[in-house]
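Hey, quick one: can you model this chain's 3D structure?
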Amino acid sequence: MHVVILAEFATASGGAEKVALESARGLAEAGARVTYIQGIAGTADPLLDHARITRVALGLPDIWSLGAAKAAAAGLWHRAAARRLAGALAALPPGIACLHLHQWTRTFSPAIMPVLFGHGAPVVATLHDYFLACPNGVYYRFDRNEPCALRPMSGACLAAPCDPRSRLHKVVRVARTGLLGRALAGRPLHVVHVCDASLGRIGGMLGHLPLTHHRIDNPIRPVAGPGAEPARGDAIAYVGRLTREKGADLVAGAAHAAGLKALFVGAGPLEDALRAMPGTEVTGWQAPEEVWAILRRRARALAAPSRWYETGPLTVYEALAAGLPVVASDRSGAAEKVRHGETGFVVPPEMAPLANAFAALRDDATVTAMGVAARARFQASPLSLAAHAGQLLDLYARIGGPGRCCAAA
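Sure thing. Here's the predicted structure for all 409 residues.
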């Protein structure tokens, strides 16, 4: 089977890129032939170093490097990206089972959709966010610091000043969403949801498009070594971008109220404010292996109290697999993997419930039992690369049709 994976980056700078890379590697290890098409110029992750993976770099710029006017135009309809992608696909041999898209907002733009559907192979898109329906991509009101309750692209949505950058940026994003809808109209796109919550939420927003919905968990690579010993830790840990929508400020306040330290591994707009709060430590971004070395030494639990409807944050799954309890927001797709009171806590992203959950984690016996249970649950039903690749191959075989999956590995 020959599969084409499309992403704008070939390095794991975020969750979507990481899943694209892991998927490519997992498919190759399962025997598939993979062509990884990278939109934006840059280096490649070592995960792509495999005999059955061919990387094609289109050498496109990140549109945010072009200046405001050019970035807006390219974000709406990047003709150069469409032309280069068309050329890359035309150079591939026949018999491709599937074109699997992971990103399209940083340089590809809606202009690539006619190119993909014109190729003839089935088109699949993994929904790591809500950009297929929501102009700002996260279905969140940044002007109110709360999840959105409006129907995307309705009159109320168009009028809402919800964009994190500016009203003008919202106008551009609305236009892009409109062009995306037109580019997809009447075209049979298969979409992969990474959590049940996303399937239920965004599935209802997209009834006007001829979509076929599928549900596949994101994969993770378990942290090497023995299970964590959370009772040895002294802090509630948070890993990721330090923003209000992800709840970083809530972790600091709730940990202090519970009499625990707060440890932040990451960077972002709230970094200075968090450093100024009592009992907090901010390490900045760290290499993956160093992140887990820090968590093994310091963390009693991982906190992921997102205010927005986050889909599938990988750090939550990685923490559970390593044997760390998790306190997750009930708005996050990651909460589906946390067993409340057994492997962690699922609570509203509010100060009091979080502080109560953190206070319970001060007890050594509690965090030890939760960590053991979390690791055992993962081992019983792992979100492994092999399992992920197997589900993808099954999906491609089902949607490919006769003769579509016959290419030699």
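One thing worth noting: The mean pLDDT is 94.
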